[in-house]
Specification:
With 96 residues, the protein is α+β, with helices and mostly antiparallel strands. 39% of the residues lie in helices and 10% in strands. The strands form two sheets. A two-stranded antiparallel ribbon has the order 1-2. The longest helix has 21 residues.
Length: 96
């Protein structure tokens, strides 16, 4: 076989193998290195009561959701209505 043909064939075989493995993965499963780890320690002033602070010590022993966002972030804007609904339902404390 021609040596020049083996290189593209090998590259195609490797790409095909990666794509084949990817087809078997769950697209909804997003592995995160932060799952099961403690939240980063913080203490910040509250938005509606600047003289009061809130931090990780206040939420110790509870399940809570920390959302970090930016006004320029398109995905943040898309998830905002869901987070508002979650906050109104009071299913879990939401810290943003």
């Amino acid at each position: 076989m021609n040596r020049k043909l083996l290189i593209p064939l090998g590259v195609f075989a490797v790409l095909f193998a990666f794509l084949l493995v990817g087809l078997g993965l769950n697209p909804r499963e997003v592995p995160s290195p932060l799952i099961g780890k403690p939240a980063p320690a913080f203490v910040r002033n509250q938005l509606h009561a600047p003289d009061k602070t809130m931090g990780t010590a206040d939420m110790k022993g509870q399940v809570w959701l920390l959302n970090v966002w930016a006004s320029w972030c398109v995905a943040c804007r898309e998830e905002h209505p869901l987070l508002v609904e979650l906050a109104k339902a009071k299913l879990v404390p939401l810290v943003a």
